[in-house]
Amino acid sequence: MGGKMKQSEAGPMAGEDFLQRCRGIVGPGNVITGQDDMAPYLTDWRGRYTGNAVAVVRPATTQETAALVALCAQARVPVVPQGGNTGLVANSVPDQSGQAVVVSLKRLNRIRGVDLVNNTITVEAGCILEEIQNAASDAGRLFPLSLAAEGSCTIGGNLATNAGGTAVLRYGNARDLCLGVEVVNAQGDIWDGLRGLRKDNTGYDLRDLFIGAEGTLGIITAAVLKLYPLPKAQVTALVGLQSPQAALELLSLAQETCAAGLTGFELMSRFSLDLVTRHFPQMRIGLSEEFPQYVLLEISDSESEAHATGLLEALVSEAMERELLGDAIVASSIAQSKALWSLREHITLAQAIEGKHVKHDVSVPISRIAEFIRETDALLQEAFPGIRLVTFGHLGDGNLHYNASAPEGVADDVFIQGQEAINRIVHDSTHRFGGSISAEHGLGTLKRDEIKRYKSAVELRMMTAIKSALDPLNLMNPGKMI
């Protein structure tokens, strides 16, 4: 950005002596050099990008991580931090030069403590998100970050990408759920910012520099996260509507009716759910007829299940009177609620089974989502007649996963040749509507150059200045974001 960051003129010096020193830090069994053994760490989750590395190293403590980074700085070896490797923009895999070391943080997986009075949990970066959710629940609390990949993604990766998920409407992104971080910087120093404070106005907010930075400024090794009281009840409904505009009107009504109790509001096009039922026939939508759009909404309640159900039923009844929706299913059990959420969570997998596709993770002002979908759909259909659009996402916070699949009868390899043109239409439209081309996935390698079209020169210069100041040798996850 504003000129490529250059690697130190000394160049990498990752010979056998370097590897031996790595083994001395983390133990011989935690320095992986065989190509077959490294393979799972070198290819991104989508299987679209494969890099190479000097080695994969697996520290077990923050001190070991710091010693490794200091060694890499001395030897001028690039460092690629990696958590669960579930990213979608190739932000946790190395390039193909074979000069980098992948630092896998999966062994930093301890829950260091729970403070019930302060409503916080302190965890290491390699903790699986689902394990943190379970630990919070066992303590009678809620950690609300929820993603489709929660069984395999790590909190370090969630923070490095400022992950969003299905509960942003009520609780915010990963950044909003984090009070403090512990970081190994590019020089191998440890910054202990593990403060469980909700107010700390003592200078630049360094925490927020590292959250969302995709490991380009340093490695997050631990974090203090916010906890919330467990809701007494959660109720879920699936509703069918005629248009995204009707969904926006339903969102406004739901916020008026349920206030902070509204914790999920997911928009899904009919084609999105058609793919799910096509490739997972055991799943059924269960409404009386098909609708152009669907919304999955959830209410969390601090009083009782009866109170929550009453709120939801009142909402559905009022929405039907206003002719905002055509039909609705209110889950009558936990199993039925999980089945409804499963429809939403299987969209990405169903589209992958259908064939190659072009992903977009965009956000636009909530009030303009219907207009964005209408105009962008038309532009794509004009340019690629028959293109099939898989539109779904977090309507309550303005984040759409606006994906494109090949027209019927068009081979994947032929369709994917149009990826750049499809991206240009979608991203230009997003920018025109005052949006962002990356809402929650980050930039990684995939969008590193693309973002230059949409950020101002002033913003790019400031970002580059921060990178240069904190990582002057450009060794931390080089080639990502900047």
Unreliable stretches, pLDDT < 50, 5 or more residues?
A: 7-11
Instruction: Note the total helix count.
Output: 16
Straight-line distance between termini: 5 Å
Strand content: 15-25%
Cα-atom Rg, whole angstroms? Answer: 23 Å
What is the makeup of the main sheet?
8 strands, antiparallel
Basic shape = globular
How much helix, percentage-wise, in residues? 25-40%
Can you give the mean pLDDT? 93
Total strands: the figure is 19
- Using the 3D structure, state the CATH architecture of the domain at 111-229: 2-Layer Sandwich
Structural class, judged by helices and strands?
alpha+beta
CATH first level of the domain at 111-229: Alpha Beta
| CATH fold topology of the domain at 111-229 | Uridine Diphospho-n-acetylenolpyruvylglucosamine Reductase, domain 3
Task: Give an account of the 3D structure.
- The chain has 482 residues and is an alpha+beta fold.
- Among the domains are: 111-229, Uridine Diphospho-n-acetylenolpyruvylglucosamine Reductase, domain 3 (2-Layer Sandwich); 233-348, 2-Layer Sandwich (Alpha-Beta Plaits), CATH 3.30.70.2190; 355-441, Alpha-Beta Plaits (2-Layer Sandwich), CATH 3.30.70.2740.
- It contains 16 helices and 19 strands.
- Strands 12, 13, 14, 15, 16, 17, 18 and 19 form an eight-stranded antiparallel beta sheet that branches. It has a five-stranded antiparallel beta sheet with strand order 5-6-10-8-9, with helices on both faces. The chain has a four-stranded mixed beta sheet with strand order 1-2-4-3, with helices on both faces.
- A hairpin with a 4-residue loop joins strand 5 (111-115) and strand 6 (120-124).
- Helix 1 runs antiparallel to helix 3, helix 8 crosses helix 10 (305-321) and helix 9 crosses helix 12 (347-354).
- It is globular, with a radius of gyration of 23 Å.
- It starts with 15 loop residues before the first helix and ends in a 12-residue tail after the last helix.
